[in-house]
Amino acid sequence: MKKKLFFVSLALAGLFCLASCSKDDEKKTETKIEIADSEYDAIINQYVDGVVLPTYSDLLAKNKQLYNTVLDFGNNPSDGNFQAICNAWLAAREPWESSEAFLFGPVADFGLDPNMDSWPLDQEAIVGMLSSQQWNAMEWTGDYDEDDETIAAVQGVRGFHTLEFLAFRDGKARTLNDVASDNEAANVVYNANNATAWAQYMRNTAKLLVDDATTLYNAWTTGGYGAKFKAHTGGDFTSGISCIEQLIDGCIDIAGEVGDAKIGDPYKEYVAGNVVKALYAVESWYSWHSRDDYTNNIYSIRNAYYGSRDGSINANSLSKLVAKYNAALDTKVKTTIQAAANAIQAIPQPFRNNINSQEAAAAMEACADLSDVLENELKPFLNNATK
């Protein structure tokens, strides 16, 4: 019995030694990943010069085109020019929605996001504006405060969605001869009595979109915000990793917003039985453009990560850096970005008519997966690896 125990003990000791030696060997061969903060500089420069600034430049150019198209309608009201406004509006939405992964800095500090993109609309106030023609009530002054209800009220009667309401009806361009089904604000139509005010309202709204896009672009260029971000030597950004964290945080925020709010809020209201409230929670439902808006939000994440606006992966991108040190993680990030975009596009069109669909639920889940990978895998990996 003692002899057997001795041999068993000897065998166990040998196994322990093998296991211990194996772990020691693993430790010897394991390479610690260390990313120098300076490695982020080229990525930050490409992010600003190759993604942010071109997106804002495109937004400004397309907002100007939208404004000119609205002027054409004022000079020559026609069904064709209503359609032209709708086409120009759709074109301008692409760079705006593709910018929502970087809603930090001037766009937030100056209230430019809600200036251009407040939702849901105050339809009663919009109809009241058509009646009163108090166009100065579309502007506010002073420092921006997101909790200021007076500013919020002004932002609710301007921007992309006010112009959307004035140009679209049930997913199509309005016409000169639309007929109102009732006297509700939601069903107001262009007619001979309000034609002048309608054209003026569209003109003022489009002009403010140009002004806001100009302010935004200038703040990043001549205003110096882009240069300060690239230099990252003071203020909120004192290192390369601090800029990269902001890049990722912007992506996390919009992934969460698309899944939890843009799709999730209408979905939750609908399944709770609040059908009308659910409908009004759907962004861009006058144009039936919700699905593409949300997809472009996801593409804004792709653009930030790829360092480009066309779906290609730039050599000086966060994707290339992550692939260099952790190819599996890079693949996972890219896969979850595309999965979220695909899931949104799989929602039957229009989203407002398919709020509680299985596809909408799947899109929410895909956005949650994307947010989780960015927040709990990508960001910690870079933080832990940066010297």
Question: Helix- and strand-based class?
Answer: mainly alpha
Run of helices and strands: HHHHHHHHEEHHHHHHHH
Beta-strand portion reads under 5%
Mean of pLDDT: 93
Question: CATH homologous superfamily of the largest domain, by name?
Answer: M75 peptidase, HXXE motif
The CATH topology of the largest domain: A middle domain of Talin 1
Residue runs with pLDDT of under 50 for 5 or more positions: 1-30
In CATH, the architecture of the largest domain is Up-down Bundle
* Radius of gyration (Å): 26 Å
Work out the number of β strands.
2
- End-to-end Cα distance, whole Å, is 57 Å
Tell me the number of helical segments per DSSP (H or I, 4 or more residues long): 16
List keywords for this structure.
globular; disordered N terminus; A middle domain of Talin 1; single chain; 67% helix; 2 domains; 2 strands; mainly alpha
Please specify the SSE layout and strand pairing:
Blueprint: H1 2-29, H2 41-75, H3 79-97, H4 106-109, H5 112-117, H6 123-132, H7 149-155, H8 160-167, E1 168-169, E2 172-173, H9 195-220, H10 225-231, H11 240-271, H12 275-280, H13 290-306, H14 318-325, H15 327-345, H16 358-385
Antiparallel strand pairs: 1-2
